[in-house]
Amino acid sequence: MNKQYAQNLTIQSLIDSMPVIPSDISSEQRASFMYSLQDLVHHALSILLKDELQLFASVYASWTFLIQKNPQFLSAKQLYGQLISLIKKQKYDDKSLNAAIECVTLILHILDGDTVQSHIDIHSKEHLTNIYQEDHLSFFRGIILSIDNTSHQNERAISELVCENIDGYIITINLFDSLAIQSMNFWIGATVHLFSLHKNHKKDHHFYSGNHTLMVLEPDILVSVTEIAECVQQNAPKGIVAVYFLKKFLDKSSSKAMLSGTIIGNWLDELLAKSAPDSISNIFYKSLKYKPLLTLSIFNNEKESDDLLKEIEDLSMSMQEQKQLISADFITTEAAFLSPAFGLNGRLDILLEYQDNPLLKTIVELKSGRTPSIDHSVMYDNHYVIKTGAWPNHTAQVACYNLLLDSAFPGRSGDSRLLYAKANDFPLRNVPNIFPAKRDVLSIRNSIIAIEHAIMQRRFQVFEHLFHVTTIDSLPSFMQVEAGVLSKQYFSLQRVETLYVLALISFVMREHFVARTGTHARKGFSSLWHEQLNFKQESMMAIGYLNIKLNDSDWETMHLELTRTSHSAVFTSIREGDTVILYPHNKQPELGEAVKGYLYKGIVKSIDDDCIKLGMRNKQARIDHLSTTDQFWAIEPDNSNDSLYTGLFRSIGDFIRCSSEKKELILGIKKPELKEFSLENIPNYLHDSQKVIYKKILQSNDYFLVQGPPGTGKTSSLIKSIVETLYHQTDENLLLTAYTNRAVDELCHMLNGAHIPFIRLGSKDSTHFQEHTVYSIVDEYGIEGLRNSIHNNRVCVSTVSSLQTNSEIFDLKTFSTVIIDEAAQLLEPQVLGIISKVKRFIMIGDEKQLPAIVQQDARGALLNNPLLESIECTDLRLSLFERLLIICKKNEWNHAFDMLHYQGRMHHDINTYISKEFYDNALRIMNSSQLIQHDESILTTYNRIHWIASDTESIPKIHRKEAEKAVELAIDILDKTTQKKTDIVGIIAPFKAQIALIQQLIPHSYKQWITVDTVERFQGSERNIIIISLAIHNSASLAMIESLQEIDGKWIDRKLNVAITRAKKQCIIIGNPKALRKNSAYWDLWNYAIQSHSISSIS
User: Fold this and answer.
1) Among 268, 302, 878, 1033, which is least packed, fewest CB within 10 Å?
2) Is the CATH code 3.30.450.40 the one for domain 668-900?
3) Is pLDDT above 70 for 336?
4) Model-wide pTM > 0.85
């Protein structure tokens, strides 16, 4: 394996992989066949754009950018439009499929540089609306083809955009004044929305902006209303965009004023929603328990919380009277909305609606802080001055909410009001719903997007300007001190530290962009409104056509029960505990239905073949909307986890703030030191090789890295021994963390078995150890009881993501040692904030198993700078664990790392292959039981590693014969076992379509015993027997299932390593050897099977 595996997917290999329609294709498989053809084109685009740093919000934006550079590909783009038309028709007969095959074949040949003849009419636009004939465009979505620099005429700024829409219409747009100035920061390939354009009758295909024109840059990036409003200040009504960016890197802010506002809002919700509302004191304590760590970080003792309760009780007295000012037929609190039209998301405090006029909707936004004068004025669009009696940031917030409602309810009318809780006179104040206000907030939003783009393109001058003293001086007073300190710390960084920080920031911003928009290979959050529901059902991304069981749902607690209908997806990637979006849809689903009207979010409490139970987030949602019977409902995963990325940026800020010594350790510049540690009573359950590592860890002063191959007892033995020793022989506070809840629960199980008390961060639903969670403790003992528990418990356990969202734990407790399990699955910014705050970190992982999840393409992760190369920072897709391991090996810092060499999971015969191919013959078996040859619990007709050869089939990502064989083998295994059937057999497949097919073929009586999933879902698990169905038909599809990485001069396939090592006794691979490249890990495995006489045919 001392060679590079050829991973380069070529367009020619895609052409060679073109499928044909099988004669026995089922109606269910026809849609999958059509979508797989589209995937081939997306892979081709990815190949052609792999060296571009720019990211694209849509496939169409990718095409437009590609054609700008390669005009010869224009006909391929037009053919792609024909393909999309075929897909949208959702008619999957032979004629449509053959037409799609012809389209894709031609596209691939054109992109490969071939000259082709097409019989497809790619120029016809008869079915389209000719926008050239329109006098007024109420809405235009297009991709920027060119930008003419801003000029000035008659003291007016003027710029010119040339844009193309998805139908191929190209128009020139003249922008004036503030819109022209905004466009200076736009770029070719960006997506824009323009509202209300006027036709220039003197020039063909020319339009211009008017007084009511609104412009949105990259609208699929949804920016929070709150974050936009925070940029607007009394001294800067046009907004200080630096606020948005600098807040990301500051310590998590919390104050009594913020908490007070939250409690008042919760109480008002209760007051408006219920005829017999709970008391203000009960609401107060419930609110504190909802954010217990935040509460403890704000209050030093019980008296401080009592003082705040008294203030809130006084305020609630006046608000009882103010309630009379809020009346309507329907009052909804905490109503959430998304607007892909304007690129916004937000949640209103109160929405008033009326029975006789469904489009009349009034906003009421509660403000519990300082009240402005009733005569206070706000300037809009640089020259409109209007008396509002409201602070500028509050009027900006209301302008955003008006845009959200304009988008969710077209034709909506109604007032927008601010309710100042502390106002003695006129507490309810109207804010005008005017275009200049909307234009101003969209200008702030567009500036944010433009700066993010510059940073993603690694144009860091824009970012560094945010830290300049002039910017800091313009910030609101509550930010100036902390931001000023951060600025000084940033400009004091060494050059390599600065480059490292900038590289991470650009990388994280790119990850956030891709999470929202997707890539050619992955769907982002914007698929919520861009993709057809039926496609998402086929891809196991959604479940549609659901009915809400009105009688079985608990409307008091808002726990809903939904049932599938005949059109609902049977198989899905949605799991118990997932956060989902719930939305209504028609019998014939339309694009964008998920963002029309209210946005409902919930937690999946349980899911089975018949029923899905959801716990709704908004307990005051309108029941009449949810209980209607004239529509279906759909659920999709909520992938809008902005808080995750906020935590990553704050983690980078923590690195900037930490000591110079800690920075040098993290970067690998400083050699980690040793310390004296008196070793007493080494645990006898440790293997001899584990004892060596145990001693080295305890003598480490700064950090230690443990390579833990599969089955080597990382948690059950090594981590346990370290924790027991530090707990009983020192007074250290210990933090244990890992990437997944499953791994964290394993740590909890270990602590329970060792009788070591601990607290667990995270929700109750995320763990089997609910009694240890902070929420269970606060429910039983109250806030002060939780404070005592945190003080008295020396061990805290959490996922990495929970530590980021509950960073207050570091204000409440000082940890001397953190143990990070699954460290190779964590990117550098995911752990920087944690290790920056502790004395010593111990990382345990295996860089030869699954890597960290990265959504962006390689180009944005690769670095080419001598200073960064000196610290082995060349690829940000690698974990900190792996980078430091490379440095330790290179510098021969042998005291700082080691490998566990003995595994107790796999049979000797499986271990022999794994050890040779992945671990340089360094992995050995731990127990004599792993040598047993005669074992009736396995399939004795096959060897321990066995390959069953399949033939080529036609449908990409599906192999029916393999699926049938996998199910047949699994049933045979279960039928012959005399043991408990749990954890006996598992089936691994790389594609969701193949997983769904296998699950469909499993008889109902066996479903509970057979786990079918991807290798990613199987990591950390084990089964006696693992069956792997490759479902590949050519070398192009092989490239899609590999995870290749060069480690210590060898190229390995990390996914293959994980897949095989899930098996304790036997691993059976079912796959097509004709699809293998001769320079691939699978080819090596195939040859190993040949040499060991471990091959048979599927027939």
Assistant:
1) 302
2) no
3) yes
4) yes
